[in-house]
Structure formats: structure tokens, C-alpha cells
Amino acid sequence: MKAAVIEKKNSLSVREVAKPVPGRDEVVIQVHASGICGTDLHIYQGDYKGTYPIVPGHEFSGVVTEVGPEVRNFKVGDRVSVEPNLSCGVCYDCLSNRQHFCENTQAVGVTRSGGMANYVTAPEKGVFPIGDLSFEEAAFMEPLSCVLHGIERVNPVLADRVLLIGAGPIGLLLLQSFVSKGCTRIEVVDRDKSRLEMAKKMGASRVTDDLSSLPKEHYHIVCDATGVSLLMEECLNYVRPSGKVLWFGVPHTDAKVTLPPFRIFEKEITILSSYTSLRNSWQALELMQTGRINVKDLISHKLPLEEFERGLKIMETHSEPAMKILIMPQLS
Ligand SMILES: [Zn+2]
Ligand SMILES: [Zn+2]
């Protein structure tokens, strides 16, 4: 079978590799859609603690083609998606319902072979049935579940006013989730006009490319979906007294921000972060299946496996307008 293999920093090849065989509790999945994520780009750029070579891809869906002898809930032909972060179930954090901080964590497409390939294996405990969702939509199960974890962290209440900075694919999933939670006025900032158009379509009450035009100390929730330090700092200027800031975008590992501790004290401002997801995959599937969250319109590219590197380059250089880029390993 073919797989995209990141051999080492900035070196990628699409080549023949051995087709995986399932472990006792694993299924083999023929991959139909596999989303490119910032994490894949980090692995490619060398900002990665694991060992090379690695087949990336942790946002994918496909069809079960083989099952190990101990698999109970899946059979050949099932349409599935995978929650890539695999917790051990027996460490301190797993037993405290914080599986996303598992001390023995493994991740499909990060520490073990992922979905940028014709086939991939995953243990049954990370596999979810996708019903009649398209493969393209089901490839969003993982990123949407991360967004839903962020929403659970910030816990919006009915009629909260929200400021959202950044309208990329993740920002637009956050936007739709805030709408679903009953937030009334959700204002979205981005430099890119076409992303702002999309934000309007997906429920933003106001969009602008000029953050400074918006009222200060006005929003119950201010959410950064960029990971850019300066914008993460700006969040503090726009949040109301007793409001919450959600830093959702992933900053550089060595990024620093400057914060106003007196204002945080005087206005009882809460700053929250959100790391991966915690049992949010069923919610993600349900929200997509019921049409409550639209992911179809977030897809800008569907590329064959051979063009995985091109997809990474588009993300890296913004050489052309892009939202979510999907690799379709069954195309060629
Ligand atoms: Zn991802
Ligand atoms: Zn654990």
C-alpha cells in the first residue's frame, strides 16, 4: 500500500510500505478522507518530540477491512472515524477522568502510523461508527471534538456575547458551537474577507477585519483561535468584568505574552486554555449528523495522497486561499 512518510525534518515521500495487520484489539481501516492539521505541519517542520519516520494524519475516516480476534463492536464494511489520542486507562490521570493527560498516551498519526495512507490500524477503543455521514465530514470528528472540549471549558450561557478572533476552519467550528450554545451576538475578526463572509453565513452577528473598531470590555467571552501572542494579549482588552478568555489557538512552544495582572484581579477575569479533547467524539458526530454544525463548507481542497506535501506547503506558505485541506487516499 502507499503512505505519506515524513522521513525526517522537511523530508517527505509518498511510497510503498507494508500494509498493516491488526493487533488483537485493533481494526484495519481503509482511509477515505484524512484532514491536514497544524500538527502534521509541525511534524514536517521538525517541531516534534517523537521519532522519525512517521506516517502522519490523525483526522480521518474510512471503512473497516479487517478486525482483530478480540474486537467486539466492529465488523468488515463498517464506516468509521478514529479518536486518535489513545489513553491507557490505568494511570493516575486516566483514573481521574482526565484521559487527555494520560501518562502513557499514544496518538494515531503522531506516535504511531496515521491516516495519510491507504490503510491504518487503530484499537477498537478509539473507533467510532459514523452512520451515514460522508467520509469528508467524518474526517472532522477529531478537530470538532477538540473544539467541543474548548466549549465545555469556557461553558457559555444563554445570551452571552462572544468575540472570536480568527475565522479559519477551527474558528468557524468554534463559531458554530457558540451559536449552538445559545450565544446571541458573536462577533468575528479576521484579516481574510472570504473567511469573514463564511463566518456571516455560519451565524456571526458582525464581522470585521479591524479589531480596534470593536468595543472594549464588552464581551462575556473572548476567544482566540489564532495562537498569535499579540492577539492572545488583546483578548484581555475586550472581555467584560467577570468574563472569560479562552485561548484556543495553539501558540509556538516558546511564545510569551504580557498580561495586566491588576485588571485580571480587579475585574475577576478568567483565562482558560483547552488541550485536545476529553470524550467529545460522540458529541461531534451527533452535531454533524443533525446538521447543527456544518463542516462541508469548510473543505477547500480534496487532494490525492501524492499531493500531501503540496497540501502542507499551502498551509505553510498561504500560497493560495485554503480552509480545510483533505487528503483522499483512494483518489489517484
Ligand atoms: Zn489536528
Ligand atoms: Zn493513562
Description:
With 332 residues, this protein is an alpha/beta fold. The protein has 2 domains: 2-140 and 295-327, Medium-chain alcohol dehydrogenases, catalytic domain (Quinone Oxidoreductase, Chain A, domain 1), CATH 3.90.180; 154-273, NAD(P)-binding Rossmann-like Domain (Rossmann fold), CATH 3.40.50. Helices cover 25% and strands 26% of the residues. Strands 3, 4, 5, 8, 9, 16 and 17 form a 7-stranded mixed β-sheet that branches. A 6-stranded parallel β-sheet has the order 12-11-10-13-14-15, with helices on both faces. Strands 1-2 form a two-stranded antiparallel sheet. The longest helix has 14 residues, at 141-154. The protein is globular and about 60 Å long.
Could you list the spans in which at least 5 consecutive residues all have pLDDT below 50? none
Structurally, the number of domains stands at: 2
Radius of gyration, rounded?
A: 20 Å
CATH topology of the largest domain: Quinone Oxidoreductase, Chain A, domain 1
- Report the structural category: alpha/beta
Task: Give a topology summary.
Blueprint: E1 2-8, E2 11-16, E3 26-35, H1 38-45, E4 60-67, E5 79-82, E6 85-86, E7 106-107, E8 119-123, E9 127-129, H2 135-138, H3 141-154, E10 162-165, H4 169-180, E11 186-189, H5 193-201, E12 206-208, E13 219-224, H6 229-238, E14 239-247, H7 261-266, E15 270-273, H8 281-289, E16 299-303, H9 308-317, E17 324-327
Helix pairs in contact: 3-4, 3-8
This protein binds zinc ion (2 copies).
One zinc ion binds next to helix 3.
